[in-house]
């Protein structure tokens, strides 16, 4: 197992209670597929051909590992920090009024938002006030999304969905980094971060490799010629997974009405609902958030 390196720091109350670590990554074909839950039916989770998943040997961090990842407020930036926190109580009470926790599908969730416009206006007003207090600049709403219960990883490339797709068409990406057409490995840290709010019924998890893209790039340089192999923003995930499968992954619990803030353009990550039995519901905003 590769040793955990100093890199992206994590800030949270009672950090040791919500973070676990494992022994690395595994190609999806080498790990027994779990059964995600959709409308009380179970389906074997399928993946894209290059998808890598975290190994399931989760454990608590030892003291030296804890010291490596724990935030210390030194050189704290939006691109090198992850924050876990709780949504203000007044906003939680408004979300309670939507009764989202009984929803069984994304259609039900969206319908509850459409049918409660006055309540949504109140939520938006208070959420904007909250986000303005932790934002270093402008921010924008990205999405209201749902994920299946008991899903090992949650991210999908929805651009590949066929017309009239069924659950059997879904192929999950695995641990990855976000990106845009204008991004390079040397500019990934300039693209801000995201805040994702868990407004579902159960805890969900942020899966995280605590290395920035420049750290990953420099690690790959020790194994191969990055210029001859044209290592770039599009293929760095595949190279890292194959060259460093024993680098540990962190699993960070995000209880209901808690948020995570993470630089998802600048690190490998995904969400997970593994172990849950209800619909996962998440609201996400993009910006430059710092606490």
Average pLDDT, all residues:
95
Share of helical residues: 10-25%
Shape: globular
Rg to the nearest angstrom? Answer: 19 Å
How many strand units?
Answer: 15
How many angstroms separate the termini?
32 Å
SSE order, one letter for each helix or strand: EHEEEEEEHEHHHEEEHHEEEE
Biggest sheet record: 6 strands, mixed
Count of helix runs:
7
Adjacency order of strands in the biggest sheet: 1-8-13-10-15-9
Q: Low-confidence runs (pLDDT<50, min 5 residues)?
A: none
Strand content: 15-25%
Oligomeric state, counting identical vs distinct chains: single chain
What structural class do helix, strand and pairing data support? alpha+beta
- In the residues, how many domains can be counted? 1
In short:
With 291 residues, the chain is an alpha+beta fold. It is built from seven helices and 15 strands.
How does this model look, in words?
- With 291 residues, this protein is of the alpha+beta class.
- The chain has one domain (9-287).
- The chain has helices at residues 15-18, 63-69, 89-98, 106-114, 117-134, 213-221, 236-243; strands at 9-11, 19-21, 25-27, 35-38, 41-44, 52-54, 59-60, 81-86, 140-147, 193-198, 204-208, 250-254, 258-262, 269-272, 280-287.
- The protein has a six-stranded mixed β-sheet with strand order 1-8-13-10-15-9, with helices on one face.
- A hairpin with a 2-residue loop joins strand 4 and strand 5.
- Helix 3 (89-98) runs antiparallel to helix 5 (117-134).
- The longest helix has 18 residues, at 117-134.
- It is globular.
